[in-house]
Amino acid sequence: MAGILERKVALVTGGASGIGRATSLAMAREGARVAVADRTEESAAGTVALINAAGGQAIAIGGDVTAEADVAAMVARTVAAYGRIDCAFNNAGVAGGSVGPGRQRLHELSQVSFDTMLAINLTGVWLCMKHEIVQMLAQGGGGAIVNTASIAGLIGLATSGHYVAAKHGVVGLTKTAAIEYAQDGIRVNCVNPGYITTPMTKEVVETRLDATLAKVPMNRMGVPEEIAEAVVWMCSDKASFMTGASQVVDGGYFAA
Ligand SMILES: NC(=O)c1ccc[n+]([C@@H]2O[C@H](COP(=O)([O-])OP(=O)(O)OC[C@H]3O[C@@H](n4cnc5c(N)ncnc54)[C@H](O)[C@@H]3O)[C@@H](O)[C@H]2O)c1
């Protein structure tokens, strides 16, 4: 398909759902061949089916971003299928309710919750970057990486200390990688979504939608497709002078 990612190969983690699914679809629409990765190959296959139905090309890969062998295999399978990796969207992540009771202040968090959050939302991003960069350096010609941070990577958020710590870490890793690989033609940026309607925010919608929207100047949640468009652009050659940036897409939350 013709588009701003024509002839590119993209790897997306967390591609079975929400922002990752919408971005996989948008990348394919813009001409990329997409490796859709998620915890299980079966879940990623749902997104691949949507891409194929729209006339795009994609493969499904299962794996856990906290396991280095799985991450190495995700990269290897992408390269085996499509020969290279030009764009990577390191997006797999979880909210507090997935690693503990959720809505806990710092002194209430267990070490298991804290460590699990950091393992998925921060170490997972680093492991993906590590193996993608090894491939990009080996193949030559540079590349573009986008990591999913959050507005919680730029500000504090009560009862989400571990999530905030991980997402601030993603912003720091992004800046450092941008500096380290600029001379290799590898651009590294992050997207910082505000509140987006996905399975991750189901509990927010059900329990505190009004209070949440009161902090958003546009007075609505975003939809995954609104993050996808920014990510596609950051991955494309149109963003050729953009690296080390944190791109907020949040309906005005961070500005208010
Ligand atoms: N939804 C929001 O409001 C919002 C706001 C800011 C940032 N984010 C971030 O966006 C990213 C995507 O979230 P979403 O809202 O689309 O949620 P989602 O739950 O719909 O999708 C997250 C995906 O990541 C996958 N995943 C989780 N842990 C994994 C692991 N260890 N290995 C492999 N895959 C794993 C899940 O299986 C799931 O498919 C996350 O990093 C999240 O922190 C979301």
Helix and strand layout, with pairings?
Elements: E1 9-13, H1 18-29, E2 33-38, H2 41-53, E3 57-62, H3 68-82, E4 87-90, H4 111-139, E5 143-148, H5 161-181, E6 186-193, H6 202-213, H7 224-235, E7 246-249
Parallel strand pairs: 1-2, 1-4, 2-3, 4-5, 5-6, 6-7
The chain binds nicotinamide-adenine-dinucleotide.
How would you describe what is shown here?
The chain is α/β, with parallel strands linked by helices and 256 residues long. The chain has a single domain, classed as NAD(P)-binding Rossmann-like Domain (Rossmann fold), CATH 3.40.50. It contains seven helices and seven strands. The chain has helices at 18-29, 41-53, 68-82, 111-139, 161-181, 202-213, 224-235, and strands spanning 9-13, 33-38, 57-62, 87-90, 143-148, 186-193, 246-249. The longest helix is centred in the middle third of the chain and has 29 residues, at 111-139. The radius of gyration is 17 Å and the shape is globular. It starts with 8 loop residues before the first strand and ends in a 7-residue tail after the last strand. The protein binds nicotinamide-adenine-dinucleotide. The site of nicotinamide-adenine-dinucleotide has 27 residues, from helix 1 and helix 4. The site of nicotinamide-adenine-dinucleotide (NAD) has 27 residues, from helix 1 and helix 4.
